[in-house]
Amino acid sequence: MSSDVVVELDGVRKCFGPRVIFDDVSLSVHRSEVVAVIGPSGAGKSTLIRCINQLNTFEKGVIRVLGHEVYGTEEGRPPLRRDDLRRLRTEIGMVFQTFNLFPHLSVMKNVMLAPQRVKGRSEAEAAAQAQELLEMIGLSHRKDAYPRQLSGGEQQRVAICRALAMEPEVMLFDEPTSMLDPELVGEVLAAIRRLAVDGMTMILVTHEMMFAKEIADTVVVVADGGIAEMGPAKEVLSTPKTERARSFLERVLLHTGGDTGPQAAASEGGFDAASGGFDDPTLSWSREVDEKGLR
Amino acid sequence: MSAITLYTGAMLQGAVITLELTAGATVVSLIAGAAGAVGRLYGPRTLKAFIFGYVETIRGLPAILQLFILYFGLTQFGIDVPAYWAAFIWLCLYGTGYAIEIFRAGLQGIPEGQHEATAALGLTRFEAMRRVIIPQAWVAMLPALTNFVVLELKNTTLVYFIGVQDIMFHARLGVSNSGQPLAIYGIAALIYIVLNGTISRVGGILEKRAAIAS
Ligand SMILES: Nc1ncnc2c1ncn2[C@@H]1O[C@H](COP(=O)(O)OP(=O)(O)OP(=O)(O)O)[C@@H](O)[C@H]1O
Ligand SMILES: [Mg+2]
């Protein structure tokens, strides 16, 4: 394990009862790498990233996050002690599909809670940090609002701040934009893009293929009980090597692609970046929305 | 006329006992109920089973039977609990059984995502409960808790059966001595209405405050 590996999965198997969701999943995520996890619904993408911070346990294999090692329940090793588990989780930020902000706390308090209660920061320190994060994400004017007073996009950006306030080494995103109205997607993607630029290590489950192609270094296609294909983002998304990845990407493009995209790609029997499988007009459209989102 | 004045005074003294018992038992029941609900939901298996059994027993047995078992039953073992304390202990045990159920429902009503968010941030279970889960459950539970206190106060009337001198005790005494049931029970009813009305009022204010704060 080279020193700049932040997250490493080695032969991980996950079952729900008798059902194997995936097996023998191995994956290394290096510092500042952005990994996009894509794949059909129900393939186990969420479960995969939830195993990393132990919101789900897993049966076989080992997951390493920085210094922490977690073994599958069948490996016969003692489970992580409760305090070690908490320490592991403080290194990992998580952003949920459904935001999961604390509804009884203001935006500021949502961001301040964990630094105060987990890291023992003073109220003033935590407030200063929250203020800074909210400013970065363009929400400092909403700091006294309650979550229900915010749009979905704003809520998700607060959720990102809340995770960042713990200064995690790696961020996990589970379809952060799939609950949002289309016009709100851009502002959240812009926030994530900014983290990528700042060198944050990230694992992102997403259906936004354009976005994955733009910011991800690596794309992992999860399907049929394991990783169907994994490699540099542009390669996997433009010229998938496996049949499984190809058929998945074709289906996604039929739903989200532009006028020429799917047909052109289908007629050529593959995905070529140049042939417009992922046309840049869509990309620039999303950029435009992003800029509005971030003023 | 003077009999009524006399027994009204006695009933008001009884009201002090009624209020003492209600307030004391409510405080104990709410604390024990919250702890019991947490144990019932998140504790080890044996604790869960024990609390389940406890709640079912309290809910399943008639209130008066519980009180009699506690008061008269224990004397068989040579344990002689004064009536006032037997009444208090019973009200606590009884209230705790129902409070556990109220807290359990309240805690279970909090979406799983809230628990996951606290876990992902590295909060301890205790901090998560204290800062995130219970404050939210509290708001949802307030109506049920107000109702709980009102029921607890009405339950205190049963302690008259073991000779504790609450409102009901003095009302019965007054009726048999004065022969004016309508007037004396009417005054007793008025006292209960004022007491429970106050509890409801306080509950309503708390609910409004909680609604504004969240
Ligand atoms: N707690 C659970 N108990 C049992 N089965 C579960 C549980 N959570 C998920 N599953 C099952 O595991 C499989 C993988 O679920 P998962 O949510 O990881 O899929 P996904 O790839 O994230 O899908 P989507 O794109 O719809 O979010 C699904 O078939 C799901 O029904
Ligand atoms: Mg999912």
Automatic annotation (TrEMBL), chain A:
The lineage of its organism: Bacteria, Bacillati, Actinomycetota, Acidimicrobiia, Acidimicrobiales. Its main location: membrane. One of its GO terms (molecular function) is ATP binding. This is Amino acid ABC transporter ATP-binding protein. It holds the Pfam family ABC_tran. It is a peripheral membrane protein. Residues 258-295 are annotated as: Disordered. InterPro entries: AAA+_ATPase, ABC_ATPase_HisP-typ, ABC_transporter-like_ATP-bd, ABC_transporter-like_CS, MetN_ABC_transporter-like, P-loop_NTPase.
From TrEMBL, chain B:
Gene3D superfamilies: MetI-like. Residues 15-203 form the ABC transmembrane type-1 domain. SUPFAM superfamilies: MetI-like. Pfam families: BPD_transp_1. It comes from the Bacteria. It is found in: Cell membrane. The chain crosses the membrane at residues 12-38, 50-71, 83-100, 132-151, 182-199. Keywords: Cell inner membrane, Cell membrane, Membrane, Transmembrane, Transmembrane helix, Transport. Its main location: membrane. It is a multi-pass membrane protein. PANTHER family: ARGININE ABC TRANSPORTER PERMEASE PROTEIN ARTM, MEMBRANE COMPONENT OF AMINO ACID ABC TRANSPORTER. Belongs to the binding-protein-dependent transport system permease family. This is Amino acid ABC transporter permease. The lineage of its organism: Bacteria, Bacillati, Actinomycetota, Acidimicrobiia, Acidimicrobiales.
